[in-house]
Every structure is written in structure tokens, then in C-alpha cells.
Amino acid sequence: MMKFNFFFLFIFILIQPINLYASIDEGIAAIVNDEVIFLSDLNEHIKKSGIKSINKKIQKKYLKELTDLKLLELQGKRMGISITEEQLDGIEKSFIETNTKEKVQSELKRTGINLYRIRFGWKNRYLQENIATVILKGKIVISDNEIKDFYIKNYGKLREDELANLFLIVTKNNEISKDEVSKLINNVKTNEQFFKVINELKTKGYLLPESMNLGYISVDDLNIKISKAVKLSQTNNLVGPFDEDDRTKFFYVKNKMIGDSEFFNLKEEIKKNIAEEKEFQILDKWFQDLRENAYISIRI
């Protein structure tokens, strides 16, 4: 009996300081799987975020931020993905060097956001983007039919015009410039070679600023003379010269097909939009599943 009483007294002495002197900050705010978020962590997060007055609504809002981050950290850990304070210091240093300390301080003052909030955002984004890369790998497939359906829904019916993918070359109206352009481009056999030649002509000063990639355009939208020449031309060929006062135009025909010029010029943008929507849906569902399958116990 004495042994039991002594043991009970020993345990009581051990726990008594906690009961007598512990502050409310040492309580538990939430448990995420097997990780604890202490009330002191939450209060520090709120304080560092620049919030002066704390109430239940504020606590719940900022606790959700911490539980969401904790879920990302735990999932990232399983995938070998993490970010240290030292890495965040490096990002912050680069950020300040790029934007200058004065501009950063001025923008922080204007927006009322502090560096702690920015670093918190960087941490979230880093984990989200790296986890997303793993989650999305091989899952985003976009068919031509999806792109066409998106175009018809948002832009209207597809037309069937005679199209040419053209690059406009504008140079000075003199024999030296015209001969140099013709000599270099007429030897081009591939698109890769073509862009190397374009860069060479730029370096030598033969190309005027109006020179540009026109993308796919309807051949019938060109003036009659140019339209006829483009229609008769083969692909990977130079059409011209067409003299206009002090300038001369050439058209390099990269490709020809039947279709809708607006559709072909918007194709990559449409593909990007569809991909972003699919990525959002997949990641949103993944994170919802992550939350639903996790053990999250809110204690405040």
C-alpha cells in the first residue's frame, strides 16, 4: 500500500507544475493525423500574420491555414518533398534582390501584407506545385476533338478556308538586302534552319522591325498578287519580293492546309485552358480526398 501511495505521490508531483503554471497557449488547437498543432503555434501564426485582435472566427480561419499546410507537409514527406527555412531564406533574398528592398517595403506597406505572410504563401506554393507535378504526371491528355469542341462552344462554327502559316520578312528596298534574304532563306530546308537564318539576318541588320510570325492566315485575305503567289508556292519556300516604296516584303510559307485560321492560331491557348481546367479538377478532388481521408480533430 505504501508503494502505491508513493508512486501516486510521485506522479502527482510530476504533473502538478503543468496544472499549476501552464498557460492557455500550451493547449492543443488541432491534431492532423499524428501531428499536433498547439494553441501557441496558432497564436504565433495569427500574430505573425499581422492580426491584432483575436476572436473565434479569426482562430478558425488561421487554424484552417495551418491544418491545410500540415496536410501538404505530411503528403510531401511521403513523396520526399519538403522545403526548409534556409530554402525560404534563399527565396526571400532573391526576391528582395530582384525587386529591391525599397520597392518590397513600399509594396508591403501599401498592401498591408508582411514578409511572414509572403513566406507562408511561398511554402504552400512550393509544396502544392511539387506535389501537383507528381499527382498530375501522365494524367492530362487532351484530344483534338476536345479542342474543337471548346472552340465551337466559345468562338463559333469552324470555317474551311485555304490557310497558310506565314512568316513576314520586311527588309530595305535595295538589291543587297533583297539578295541577302533570298540567298540565305532559299537554302533553308527545315523550320529549325529557318529561325537560325532569321536570327542571322537580324544580327546583320537586314530585317526591319515589322518582320514577324503571322501564324495561320486565310490566303484569300491577302492582296491578289501575294495571294496568288502563296497559293502557287510549295511549303518551306520564300515568296516575293513585293516592293512597297522604301521597303520590300517576303513571305516564308511554313505550312498550308484547309481550316479555320482563328482556330489554328488559338489552338495552343485553348489547349492550355483545357489543361488548366483539368489540372484544377484533378488537384481539387485530390485535396478534398486528402482532407476527407485524414484524421483532423479541431480542439478549439
What does this structure look like?
The chain has 300 residues and is an alpha+beta fold. It is 60% helix and 17% strand. It is built from eleven helices and seven strands. The chain has helices at 2-21, 39-48, 56-79, 85-99, 101-111, 115-136, 144-155, 175-185, 191-204, 224-232, 261-293; strands at residues 28-32, 35-38, 161-172, 212-218, 237-244, 247-259, 296-298. The strands form two sheets. It has a four-stranded antiparallel β-sheet. Strands 2-1-7 form a three-stranded antiparallel β-sheet. The chain is elongated, with a radius of gyration of 32 Å. Residues 1-25 have low confidence and may be disordered.
Strand content: 15-25%
Order of helices and strands: HEEHHHHHHEHHEHEEHE
The beta-strand count equals 7
Distance between the termini: 41 Å
Q: Which word captures the global form?
A: elongated
Helix count from the secondary structure assignment:
11
Biggest β-sheet description: 4 strands, antiparallel
Please render the helix and strand layout as text.
Elements: H1 2-21, E1 28-32, E2 35-38, H2 39-48, H3 56-79, H4 85-99, H5 101-111, H6 115-136, H7 144-155, E3 161-172, H8 175-185, H9 191-204, E4 212-218, H10 224-232, E5 237-244, E6 247-259, H11 261-293, E7 296-298
Antiparallel strand pairs: 1-2, 1-7, 3-4, 3-6, 5-6
What is the gist of this entry?
This protein has 300 residues and is an alpha+beta fold. Helices cover 60% and strands 17% of the residues.
